[in-house]
Write a structure and sequence with these properties.
This protein is an alpha/beta fold. It has eight helices and six strands. Helix content is 38%, strand content 17%.
Length: 226
């Protein structure tokens, strides 16, 4: 697995002229806005609430978070929901924020598709991602979640547009054994792939949000300073 460690110097003073009375200037980088896209459970209020609460703790790490729900079980097309996500990204960028995306399970497909569309996104995090191989999903699930089914046929083609530098800005977190998503499907060639010491699909998502926040934020700062 690949991992790059680059120190973040956003709070360090810029060099000052060695003249009497010279003032030390501080360079402040634009804030990072992390947009989180949950998976098929985004229709279940209790699950949405738990994920929102987990994301609240990220504020203490200096990252602003926003949740975007695809509403996978809606009648909207994947492209329509992707357009809404893109509009949200543009809104934050126009405010001067650096935008990163994080998607869990089915949400991984949405953030990867948006990244392929808008390369100004500074980083992408996927957790227990399912964005390949629609044949692995039982037909009733695909029928109830049409945008998800559409994403599984759309995203693989979009991934072909991502070069080595683009993929190096993607962090994929996966469980040691998922049980829902095929373990090989959670790997993305060229990305930073990391295996967490947990077993299970839902457990991996919760663990990442609660206990891998510092790792994710460190990754965001590393790639955002490249």
């Amino acid at each position: 697995m690949s991992e790059h460690v680059i120190s973040d110097d956003s709070d360090l003073p810029a060099p000052a002229e060695s003249l009497p009375g010279a003032r030390v200037a501080r360079t402040r980088k634009p804030p990072i806005r992390l947009i989180y896209v949950p998976g098929l459970g985004d229709r279940m209020p209790p699950l949405v609430h738990l994920q929102r609460e987990a994301l609240r703790s990220w504020r203490a790490l200096g990252v602003r978070t926003t949740m975007f729900r695809v509403r996978w079980s809606s009648d909207a097309s994947f492209q329509e929901r992707l357009d809404r996500l893109d509009a949200l990204v543009e809104q934050f960028e126009e405010r001067g924020e650096r935008v990163a995306l994080m998607g869990a399970s089915a949400g991984a497909g949405a953030v990867l598709a948006e990244y392929a569309r808008r390369r100004s996104i500074v980083a992408v995090i996927i957790i227990a991602g399912k964005f390949l191989e629609p044949d692995d999903i039982i037909k009733p699930v695909l029928e109830r979640n049409a945008p998800f089914a559409e994403s599984l046929s759309t995203v693989p083609k979009l991934l072909e547009e991502l070069g080595p530098e683009d993929r190096a800005r993607i962090l994929s977190l996966r469980s040691a054994r998922d049980g829902v998503v095929d373990d090989d499907d959670t790997l993305l060639e060229g990305a930073v792939n990391e295996t967490m010491r947990v077993v299970g699909h839902v457990i991996a998502i919760g663990y990442a949000l609660m206990f891998r926040a510092r790792r994710v934020v460190r990754f965001l700062r590393e790639v955002a300073t490249d």
